[in-house]
Amino acid sequence: MDTIMENLRYISKDDFALLIDSMEEAVLLLNKENIIVGANKAAGKLLGGPKDILKRKFSELFEHNSADYFEILRERKNVVNYTVEIKNHLEEKLVLNSNILFLDNDLGSEGMNIVVILKDTVNIQEMEKYVKHVDKLAMIGQLSAGIAHEIRNPLAGISTTAQVLRGKLDDSQREFIDVILNEISRLDNIVRELLDFARPVKTYLQSCNVNEIIEKVLVLVTAQFRKIKIKIERDYLKSEASIITADSEQLMQAFLNIILNAVAAMPEGGKLLIKTILVKNNTLQIQFSDTGCGIAKEKIENLFKPFFTTKVQGMGLGLTVTKRIIEQHKGMIKVESQEGAGTTFFVELPTG
Questions:
Q1: What is the mean pLDDT of the chain?
Q2: pTM for this one?
Q3: Engineering a disulfide at 248: which of 90, 208, 255, 262 sits with its beta carbon 3.0 to 4.6 angstroms away?
Q4: Mean of the pLDDT values across residues 141-168?
C-alpha cells in the first residue's frame, strides 16, 4: 500500500485513472474543498453509485463527527491505516481502514489533489478469526484423537470381560451386567464421535443419487422411528434431477447426524419431512423438517461449533462433522427453528 501511494505522486492523469479502477480497494478523489469528484468501481460497490457519492462533501459519509480525522485533512498530512466509520448509500455503518495521500499535482479534471483509499476491515478481521478457528480445531482434533484411542482399548477389554461374566451369572444378576454393557455402548458412541471429528476426511467423488442416499440412512433408523412413533414424509425430486457428484458414504454420515438430531427433538413422536428441490442453477437443496421442540434463537448460532450440544447425552460433535462434510462438497448448511414448533435443516449441494 505504501508503494502504491508513493507512486501516485508521479503518475500521469491517464495512467492514474487506469490504476485506481484496477485496485481492489475503494478510492475516492477529493478536491481542495473536500468534495468527492471521483471514485473507482470498488468505491461504487462499497458506498453506492455515482449519484450517491459524487459531488458530496466527504464529511457527509461519516457515521459521526470525527474531529481528529478532519483535522488531518485540514493540515494536509498523509495518513496510513486510520480507522473510520462511514455510512454507505443504504445508511449501513461500515468500519473502514483509511489511507490519505495529498498530491502536489492536480490529476483530476476538477482540481483533485487528495486521494482517499478505503478498505473494509471486517473482511480482515473475519479472516483472522477464521485462521484462529482453524488452528483451534486442529489442536482439538489432535487432542480428541489421542483421548479416543486411549479410551477405546480399555473399553473393549471391559466390554469383553462383562460379556463373559454375564454368561456365568443367573438371570437375577444379569440385569446389572446389562447396565454396564449399555453404558459401555454409550461411551463407545462418544469415542466414535471424537474419532470422526479428529480423523482427516478423504473425499471419493462419484456420481450418486441423493434420494437413494437418504433412503439408505432411513433404513438405519427405522427401528428408532417405530419405537417413538415418528412418521416420515418424503417429497423428492425425480431421480434424474437428484444426481450429484459426491462421496455417498460421507453424505450418509452427514444426513444421519441431521436425522438423529430430529429424532432427539421428538421423544414423544412426531413427523419428519424430507424434501429435495432445485433452488437455483446447479444447486440441489435438501430440507429436513421436524415437528420437535425447536431450538432457542441464542443457541442456533452455536449449533455447529465443536462440543456444543442441546442434548442431555452426546459430545456435540455430530453437527460439526456434518458441516465439515457439506463444506468439503462445496455446499452449505443452515438451520431455521422456532421453539415449540420444530426445526428445519437446509443442505445445499452443487449438481454441476
A1: 76
A2: 0.49
A3: 208
A4: 74
